[in-house]
Amino acid sequence: MFLLLIGSASAQQEKGIIGTENWLDNWTDFYPKNADYGEASQILTGNISKDTKLSKKDTYLLLGNVFVTDSTTLTIEPGTVIIGDFETKGSLTIAKGATIIAEGLETDPIVFTSNRSVKKAGDWGGLILLGDAPTNKFGNGSVASMYTNLDQSSYRYTNYGGENVTSNSGVLKYVRIEYAGKKRRGGSNFDGLLLASVGSETVLENIMVSHCAGDSFEILGGGVNLVKAVSYKSNSNDFKFNLGTQSQLDNSLAVRSPYATSSKGARCLEVTSYDRKEEVDFTKPGTSVIAKNMTMFNSSDDLDSHIKLGLIKEAVFIGENASLDINKSVISGFNPAVILDDKITINQENLEKIKFVDMYFNNCNGNIFKEYNSNNEDLENWYGNRSFYNVYAKSQNSETFIDLKNKRIPDFRLRINKIIAANSKN
Fold first, then answer.
1. Angle at Cα 250 formed by Cα 247 and Cα 255, nearest 5°?
2. Average pLDDT for the chain
3. pLDDT computed for residue 119 by the predictor
4. Cα gap 366→387, rounded to integer Å
5. How far apart are the C-alpha atoms of 102 and 174, rounded to whole Å?
6. 186 — alpha (psi -120 to 50), left (phi > 0) or beta?
């Protein structure tokens, strides 16, 4: 019996974000509106066409659409603050062939934030990396339509796509992106961090996007490896993968608020292969995402009421011709946990492309459904098979996570030995 309990505790600890210590400590900020970085001392505007280093001693203002072009490297020292201008929709784009080296420290992160005294989601544009890794589209892509008042000479710096799977756009490590997601042309929003055709040699670790009006992380094509990524109270999706990306997401956190979600709805994790079929070359691989040790958490303090008001939707959405392999992860407090595109035929071939293994489904209003279909018996039987080692529970948040009340550094790791769980479908 003793050995059984020890084994069970170890298995629970492995689910969701993991670490012997709370890796959110030191570098994250869950209440960034209280931070005062002072006035900018330097302005970044137009094109950066020669190697440039930003230093911690200065605070920088992104004025309008700033592009790092050609083979240029932009290096940012640990502790540097870059402020996006509200009036000009400041944004920073690392064009195809250019490189960013933004390697902060755990005790001295690099911060991108708003220049408004009262900060709100969507105050400025965001950070965009464009690479030359493949997508599943015919030809290459462009993000030119995102920008307002784009100078004609900068159009060529908005292209992405190529054949270099392992291309390297640089390093983002211990970086915070706050209050991004300004409205863009066409009515949609900038993302906090857009990675288009970014290759696998790019280092993306310990990145926090908070209070974004658009998607926190959007990945189009390419093949990125995101490690210890945090999305906090985004208005739109936390992690969105599209256009044939072959990506991995490891030991990462998405925290949703029912009060921050846009009227269009939003998910912690959205995996699709296209927006429009006519743009896609189906001889190329569809989107494939491997996710491990994810925690997807809804911060609602009145789940039933917020569900009735339509403020809480599903945590995960998988589109047609896309695949997701997710394991050792936690989905807590959603309506329901997972939705599959209604175009997906429920058969063994398709379900083998959508794997939920060793999961912890907690306090969700239903688990896995096909879109527009309330009868999920086939899916429950499939994913409820003991061979998948999935756990279903109705635990309170205080019983499930170590310390959610700590306003400075909350701890979203699972509690050991205090999870009320059963291998049954609730």
1. 105
2. 92
3. 95
4. 20
5. 8
6. left
